[in-house]
Each structure stands twice: as C-alpha cells, then as structure tokens.
Specification:
This protein is of the alpha/beta class and 507 residues long. It has 2 domains: 150 residues, no CATH class; 327 residues, Alkaline Phosphatase, subunit A (3-Layer(aba) Sandwich). The chain is built from 16 helices and 22 strands. The protein has an 8-stranded mixed beta sheet, sandwiched between helices. A 7-stranded antiparallel beta sheet has the order 4-3-2-1-5-22-21, with helices on both faces. A 3-stranded mixed beta sheet has the order 7-13-10. A hairpin with a 2-residue loop joins strand 2 and strand 3. Helix 6 crosses helix 7, helix 13 packs antiparallel against helix 14 and helix 13 runs parallel beside helix 15. It is globular. The chain starts with a helix and ends with a strand. About 2% of the residues have low confidence. The structure holds zinc ion. Zinc ion binds next to loops. InterPro entries: Alkaline_phosphatase_core_sf, Phosphodiest/P_Trfase.
C-alpha cells in the first residue's frame, strides 16, 4: 500500500522534468512507471502495459548509434524517446537482495541537474542506454582482428572473458556455489585453441600460437564509449587506436548493470554477476539486516569493499588463481581497484595493511605525487577541480605500480587489472565531450602509451592481450533542469530513506 502511494506521488506530471522512471519488482516481475503510464517487463521481452502508454518503449542496446545520432540528438526529454537495454533483467537483479535492495528506485531524467544532492554537469546511474554504455575494446593474442563492430556486450561478460583468456576452462565459470555466472565469455570475438582433453586442469600458458600469455584488463572509469571511439578514429587517442588496429571494438559497448554507478559495476565486471548476487547494490545503500548505511565507494572505505561481497561470490582473481600454479611473483594483480579479493597483488591490500587511505597518507607523509609536475598534465586549469586533481594522483601512482609489476615480462602477472579514475572526474566535471572529459581521455591514453612503449622495450608488446572498458557511460545534465522529488516524498508523511538519491527504502 505505501509503495503505491509513493509511486503515485513520484509519477505526477509536475515531477516529469526530474523523474524519468520509478522501477520496482512485483510478484517477480519488473515494473516501470512514470507520468505517461506503467508497464510490466517480462524476461521473455514482453511488455505488458498496465496503464497509459509504455514508458519503456525501447530496450534497444544499439540506440543512438552511429555516434552521429547521439551527437545530433538534443538528449531525450521523455522516456518514450529513450532506450533501456535489458530493462527487465537489470531491474530484477537490482531488487534481488532481500536486505539491501530498495523498495523502489527513482531514475533521474538524463537532464536532471542536482548539485545540492551530489549531482554534476556530467552524470550516470540511470537505466538508460547512454549512461549504461561502457566502451569495450580488445586486442592481442586470442582476440579476433575485426576493428569496430556493430554489436554490444554486457559488463557481466567482461570477467568471464578475462578468465577464459587467462586459461580458465569454461566449465569453471561458476560462482562459489557452482552456479553459472550471469555473464558469459565473448566467444564470438575470441580465437582460443580447443580445451585440452579432460578439460579443467593445467596452467594457462600452453605456448601454442594464439594462446594469451599475459592478459591486461584496463578500466577507464566512466569513459564515454562513443567519444572514446570517435577520438581514437580521429587519431587523438593513439593507444586506443593501436588496440583497435590489432583487435576490435564494439560500437554498442558493454551495458552496465543498474544502477549504472561505479562500485556496482566494478563488482559486476570482476565477478560476472549482477548486484542482486554480489551485494554491492550501489555506491551508497542501506542494509536492513544490520540497520547500517553502507558507503562502499569512498576513499575512506574502498579498501574494505570485499567486506560487502555476498557469500558465494567469486572474483576473477580467484577464478584465475585456481588454474595458475603458485609462483614467486603475483599471478594476479589489481591496481587501484576496490574489488581486489583474491588478487596476489592489490593496491587496496597495501592500504589495508597501512590501516586505510587516510592512515597511509598520514603515516607515510605526502606519498601522493604532485599532479602539477606530472608528465601527463596537459591543461593545468583542470587541477582546480579537486576530484580531477586527486584522480591524476591516483592514476600516476597506478602507472608506477603497473610498471613495477611489469619490470620484466617473465614475472609479470598472468592477469593484471588496471583501474584509472581521472576519466570519471573529467566527465563529471564537464560532462561528456567537454574539454575536461577529453583531456582526461587523452591523458589516460598517454599513460596507456607509456605502458605499451615499456612492453615494446621488453619485446613483448604483441604477446599481451588487452581488454579496455569502463564501468558506465555519461550524459550531460541541463543546468536549467533542477528540482527534487524529496518534498513529494516528505509530504506523504511516511518513514523512508532515500539513498543515492534514488534508492527508496520504506521503513
Ligand atoms: Zn565510475
């Protein structure tokens, strides 16, 4: 009864500029509603319109492509002009955790500007296609050389793809309970030798032609798929262009889980399952079982993120380590990544030993490099943005860690995961395609080129398999579209929490 009252209050036409959709799960079926109508979204693709018009008319993952179509559109004003890929199954996953899923989720309109509640010029988190579209570029041994392809994948496919490239047999792409993952390896884009007879044992480095010896997964947080590919094709991102020449890119990218926020999707990438299974429901969520507000995506708590993983979850580092014999150097490495459980080397593990981010900074003096003197700095004016400033520090340190791990090719990890953060800062600060966003892409590319050059000096650049992705997309907010649904919720006089904002828990 109270959910119906809340839905009614949030779907009034007056809130249409800020409320794109309200979504929830009822009798095991995903439901979406807004001021134009209500629909039940069945897993078989059926849209059962309950009232009015279908507010989720399109679920096309390839909507607003080619990129010129996105550039030419002013941005959808109503949900019926937008697209929501995998809406049913993504909503179902976001509502599958009995303690941590909200009672309903409010999706911001793409244009909503909410700086008072943590919003930025560039935003993500929505169920919609542009905010959910992360790039996906692969290259090197084991990857087909196809260039740009008109196709898409899902971020839950990334972990399984990295795993099979590292030699994990497909029969072992399961969680800790033996259940299949939500994602699957992108087999149609790989050319791996047939599994040895008898299957699931043995190391990953067979030495046959086309067998990946080392795999590097790269995440550029929030990198915009269309702009990244367009800049690479225009010669502005030589590192990405180098990957594209030797491999492929999906123009539809990889679809994030819902909500399309950072830690939910880092976790989905590295576990191959959606939030309803891994338990990281958002960057901020409420846990009814403990009565605790959990904030896993924060410099103060990043290093603790593995604590929030649900039992039964298995990380890609654990999957790979189960199939690579112990050696004197790390088999798996996780650089600047919160979800590092099981990795032999992890930045966050180092922070845990030091007692956390702040303790590390306090105890070891100013260990963060000065971004003003970074060789990757191109536009000093962007350092006025404190998040961009910090992102450059993290990424410069990340590159240092990467080069140390790859001091020689023989002892380098079988799987290296290398997360970068300045791209998220650039896209938040200026919105996609802004000078700051493009600066962040160029400098991340320059760090990639520095690594590629290093591999060339080692003589192994063509022996390494790469996968470059992100955790979500980005859309530009309209500073003229402000407002909040909070007064409408408050007016109901019912006890609730709104985390995010957007995850509404009825108490
Ligand atoms: Zn992110």
């Amino acid at each position: 009864m109270s959910r119906e009252a809340v839905v009614a209050a949030l779907t009034v036409p007056e809130l249409a500029p800020v409320v794109d959709l309200v979504v929830w799960v009822e009798d095991g079926v995903a439901v979406a509603a807004n001021h134009v109508g209500r629909v039940r979204l069945h897993l078989d693709g059926r849209h059962e319109v309950v009232s009015g018009q279908d507010p989720v008319a399109s679920t096309d993952p390839m909507a607003f492509l080619p990129y010129a179509a996105e550039l030419g559109a002013p941005g959808p004003r109503v949900s019926t002009d937008n697209a929501y890929p995998y809406a049913a199954r993504r909503i179902l996953s976001a509502f599958a955790d009995a303690d941590r899923s909200p009672d309903l989720a409010v999706v911001h309109t793409p244009r909503h500007f909410f700086p008072d509640e943590g919003g930025h010029r560039g935003e993500h988190g929505s169920l919609d296609v542009i905010q959910s579209r992360a790039p996906l570029v692969m290259a090197g041994p084991g990857v087909r050389q196809l260039g740009p392809v008109d196709d898409h994948a899902r971020l839950v496919d990334v972990g399984p793809t990295l795993a099979v490239l590292c030699g994990v047999p497909e029969t072992d792409l399961v969680d800790g309970r033996g259940e299949p993952l939500d994602g699957a390896p992108l087999a149609q884009y790989l050319q791996l030798p047939p599994a040895p007879a008898g299957g699931s044992t043995g190391g990953s480095t067979g030495g046959a032609v086309g067998v990946p010896k080392k795999v590097v997964g790269i995440l550029w947080d929030g990198a915009h798929c269309g702009d990244l590919l367009a800049m690479a094709e225009a010669g502005e991102l030589p590192g990405v262009a180098w990957l594209l020449e030797r491999g492929l890119a999906l123009r539809g990218g990889a679809v994030a889980e819902f909500p399309s926020v950072t830690l939910t999707n880092h976790t989905s990438i590295l576990t191959g399952v959606g939030p309803g299974r891994h338990g990281v429901l958002g960057n901020v969520f409420y846990d009814r079982a403990t009565g605790e507000r959990v904030v896993p995506n924060d410099a103060a708590t990043w290093h603790r993120s593995a604590e929030w993983l649900r039992s039964g979850v298995r990380t890609v580092f654990e999957m790979v380590n189960d199939h690579v014999p112990q050696q004197n150097s790390p088999r798996t490495a996780s650089i600047d990544e919160a979800i590092d459980r099981g990795a032999d080397y992890g930045t966050m593990a180092l922070l845990r030993e030091a007692g956390g981010f702040q303790a590390a900074a306090d105890g070891m003096g100013d260990l963060m490099p000065d971004p003003a003197s970074s060789v990757f700095l191109q536009h000093p004016e962007h350092l006025d943005d404190s998040y961009f400033h910090w992102g450059m520090q993290v990424d410069d340190l990340g590159l240092q860690q990467l080069l140390q791990l790859w001091e020689d090719a023989e002892s380098a990890p079988v799987l290296t995961w290398w997360a970068n953060v300045v791209t998220d800062a650039g896209h938040h600060g200026g919105g996609p395609r802004s000078a700051m966003a493009r600066d962040s892409l160029r400098q991340s590319d320059a760090r990639l080129v520095a690594f590629l050059d290093h591999l060339e000096t080692l003589g192994v650049r063509d022996e390494v398999t790469f996968l470059l992705t992100a955790d979500h997309g980005f859309e530009a907010a309209d500073p003229g579209v402000t407002g909040s649904w909070t007064p409408a919720l408050d007016a109901l006089g019912i006890p609730y929490r709104d985390e995010g904002p957007g995850f509404v828990y009825l108490l």
